[in-house]
Amino acid sequence: MGPESNDLVLQLRKRGVSQVILAGMAANLCTEGHLRELIEQGFEVAVVRDATAGPRLPEGDGYLSALINFRFLASAVWSTEQTIRQLRPA
């Protein structure tokens, strides 16, 4: 389930949130679904590339395909280390 089927967007807007850092278990399914919906709703979204995973099948690599899509869609694609640096106060 993505944010289109719950009140995540409402809750973020009520709190004045406009930027989201996203990670998750199924990069090519849940993570990408949330990314797409949040972007469509006007949020700036960064994805933590090494805090997501994806299936690898004989027919293809779900993780690699998700990383390619993240590069096209997300505002940023960071490592965990880069994310921590971004969150530290200046």
Compose a concise summary of this entry.
The protein has 90 residues and is α/β, with parallel strands linked by helices. The protein has helices at residues 8-14, 27-40, 62-73, 80-87; strands spanning 19-24, 44-52, 56-57, 60-61, 76-78.
Major β-sheet, in short? 3 strands, parallel
End-to-end span in angstroms?
36 Å
Work out the helicity level. 40-55%
Determine the number of helices (DSSP H or I, runs of at least 4 residues).
4
Query: How would you classify the quaternary structure?
Result: single chain
- Overall structural class, as computed from helix and strand content, comes to alpha/beta
Overall mean pLDDT stands at: 92
- Poorly predicted runs are none
Strand order of the largest sheet: 1-2-5
Radius of gyration: 13 Å
The amount of beta strand, in percent, is 15-25%
Question: Would you list the SSEs in sequence order as H and E?
Answer: HEHEEEHEH
Number of strands: 5
Shape: globular
List keywords for this structure.
alpha/beta; 46% helix; two-stranded antiparallel sheet; 3-stranded parallel beta sheet; 90 residues
Task: Walk me through the structure.
The protein has 90 residues and is α/β, with parallel strands linked by helices. It has helices spanning 8-14, 27-40, 62-73, 80-87, and strands spanning 19-24, 44-52, 56-57, 60-61, 76-78. It is built from 4 helices and 5 strands. The strands form 2 sheets. A 3-stranded parallel beta sheet has the order 1-2-5. A two-stranded antiparallel ribbon has the order 3-4. 46% of the residues lie in helices and 24% in strands. Helix 2 (27-40) packs parallel to helix 3.
